[in-house]
Predict the 3D structure of the following.
Amino acid sequence: MEVEEGVQEVGRDLAARLPRSRNPVRALDDRAMELSSQDAELRAALFRFVDVTPACRSLDDLARHLSSYLEGVEEKPPPLRAAMRMAESRAGRTALGAAAAAGVRHMAHRFIVGTTPEAAAGDLRSMWKDGIAASLDLLGEATVTQEEADRYAERCAHALDALAKTTAGLPERELLENDSLGPLPRANLSVKVSALTPMMRSEAPELGRDDAARRLRPLLRQARDLGAHLHVDMESVDSLETTFELVFDLLSEEEFRDGPSAGVVLQAYLRDSPAHLDRLLEWAQPAERRPPPVVRLVKGAYWDHEVVEARQHGWSPPVYTDKHECDRNFEALTRRLLDARPHVRVAIASHNLRSVAHAIAYNRATGGEDRDLELQVLRGLGDDLARALAATGMRVRAYCPVGELVAGMAYLVRRLLENTSNESFLHEQSRGVPIDELLVAP
Ligand SMILES: Cc1cc2nc3c(=O)[nH]c(=O)nc-3n(C[C@H](O)[C@H](O)[C@H](O)COP(=O)(O)OP(=O)(O)OC[C@H]3O[C@@H](n4cnc5c(N)ncnc54)[C@H](O)[C@@H]3O)c2cc1C
């Protein structure tokens, strides 16, 4: 079957399995999200507010911040005018502050599975029962001191132990535990290099690389001994060189030749990503590590940051500025990655039905087995898609952040930015764009 025909078939099948009554974006935080995606000023005001929430000392303080940010929004829709009126009296501010705090907490809990790995255990078990594996992510990014980096590494070590305990008691799930290359670890942890070192400098990547290596090496040993998977996330482009060098160097060390299972991330929104994939494959092919590295393909979570940063310096952005180009590149990289097996294991991370259906259809059209492709979603955003994928017999993994609300703010703001953007697939889906249009080739 032609790939394009397969995309339409898989996409329709998945769409038919998604619940109609609930749509992922409105579910985020209904009215606020909807309003903020219509108005750029309001969007900026709400993000500033979400950012400042953890620092507010009282409900009164919270309400004052909210109303001062909203002050700057020129055309206020009726719910905002009502909020501004409430902020005029002390009692009103307390009520407004309480409602706003509850709103932010509610939003955060959709994305964050628990404050600790132990607290997340129940959710992880029930996801596994539903056919969904997990990768845990410890919230708290960009450390500034060596002590903070040590503390993050300790939390990672603790999370690996906790994950090993939780996953040891899970029932067998063939699809989540094996592909045609062999066993897949049950315990899976994602880590961030910016949290493993305070010394990330784009002009001197070796500083961050060496400092982070001191903390990543013991974690790799621990993961190998526990039979766990360690995945190194990708962040903004100024940390890309450090991250690639760190992963390539450490995993090439003799002691890690036969494990642990480990992985990296490729960001399709970067114009240079085809060259990044060349480099990745040049490293992975001759290394013949067993097990091969897992490459998680994403579009990239720092789009606004990269564009603003480049403009401030008068540079041209390192990211595509046309969403279709980014989506086309995502599909091209998907095909190249699937063709590169068995030197890599492939994980396609997206909530976009078209991008996901394309990966499944291409794999089938080229004779690949479903179990040799993993799909990944973010907890809170891709829950319905994850269930639909699991129901069709695909392996799916949800990325599950763990930690305190305060540490999770940067993460939360990124998710809000993504999903209130008019270019977001989830936003289009929530507006009721017909499935035919959603599945059109980019
Ligand atoms: C399991 C998992 C792990 C992830 N890990 C990482 C990670 O380590 N590092 C990381 O950076 N991201 C990571 N992400 C986030 C990911 O990069 C995307 O931000 C997110 O998945 C949204 O993309 P989409 O395909 O789901 O949705 P879509 O709506 O199809 O795409 C949205 C994305 O398109 C891109 N985009 C938006 N506007 C434009 C434009 N005008 N021009 C060009 N491109 C545009 C942006 O990347 C935006 O996030 C992860 C996502 C998942 C599901």
In short: Confidence is low (pLDDT under 50) at residues 21-28. Strands lie at 132-138, 178-179, 182-183, 188-191, 229-232, 261-267, 294-298, 345-349, 374-378, 395-402. The chain is about 55% helix and 10% strand.
